[in-house]
Amino acid sequence: MFLRIITTALLLGSLNCELYAQNSVTLNVNLYPIQTLVVNPSQKVVNLEYNTREDYSNGIVSEQQDHLTIYSTGGFQVKVSTETAAADNGLLDNITVIPTSGSNPLNQSHVVYTNKKINQDEQPIISATKGAINKNVNISYKGAGNDALIEFAKSSTAVNHTYTVVYTIVSQ
Predict the structure, then answer these.
(1) Which of 134, 135, 123, 136 is nearest to 170 (CA)?
(2) Phi and psi of 8, rounded to 5°?
(3) pTM for this one?
(4) CB count, 10 Å around CB of 171?
(5) Number of domains in the chain
(6) Which domain CATH number covers 82?
(7) CA separation for the pair 76, 167 (Å, rounded)
(8) Would you indicate the residue range of the signal peptide (predicted)?
(9) CB 68 within 8 A of CB 136
(10) CA atoms of 162 and 45, how far apart (whole Å)
């Protein structure tokens, strides 16, 4: 009887081992590059107001804090250009875009900021060798001084020159 119990236990134990099964699955994690660039919604209109003699003489600066928010999975460039009016006559040659660190800045050891005059050609103003997650950049729009814009003003009425400034982010 004892022998039957031992034999039965051994048989059931070996059956239990035979009932064990294993299988596998392949898990692919696909990471795609992403670049997004957002202009602060409350700063979609920027004005350079020349109201006084000093404005024409010294120039005007409109500082836009945290104007751009950048998300990029790898190195990138931010470029600036404009859609100019046919009758621009060189006014944009007197406007400079100046990027600086925002409140949540890019890693300073991996970024280069470059001031650029606005024109129709895309020009890099920010170059970064590493990615950025929701990093901010301040942009200052600087209008020339030295009376450079006098020739674009009329003596009797205010003149408004409107341009669409375009920021583009590309991977590098």
Answers:
(1) 123
(2) -65, -45
(3) 0.83
(4) 13
(5) 1
(6) 2.60.40
(7) 13
(8) 1-21
(9) yes
(10) 10
